[in-house]
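Record filed here:
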Amino acid sequence: MVVVNQFFISQGSKSGDTLILTPEESHHLRDVQRHKANETIQVTDGKKSFFAQIMTLTKYEVIIRLMSEVITPEKKGSITLAQALLKGDGIEWVLEKSVELGVDFIQPFTSKRTIVESESPNKRQRWEKIMDAAVKQCGTPTRPILKTTLPFEKVLENSSELKIIFWEEGGISLKDFLKRNLFILQHTSRH
């Protein structure tokens, strides 16, 4: 069964449950995606995804029934992307692609070359919405956890088994790094 977009539901739901979608999700399902009653959709609670059937679709609400959980392969290890704050909407593109690639944590940071010095509450809310939209579009059950912005020095202090830093004036290509460190990457992904 191929389902393109998915919609958000409350956490703790299980197969067989009947749910009412939020007004925002109902609008998106009914008016943007133009789904009809009895169609099968995919929904997520942020941890797992389900196939669901649209039971009732009215101008005011959408009622769905969860049919079965979508089986997703278990991830081996986790990925944290540390990303400098970018000017303009560059960070928004990075957030979207991070969701699509399966990043688990996003750690924004500032450095001495960062032009944007901080994030505003409104900007953070926008970033969360961008990541939610990417989750809906790509079909992943989970969204990365967006951490609080830190100075670059603090990011380096945080514990991690392996750190890969991309820098335009860096030493070796990613391809060469992976050739040299394949055993290390395989070993750390098993823990």
Remarks:
- The first helix runs from residue 23 to 32.
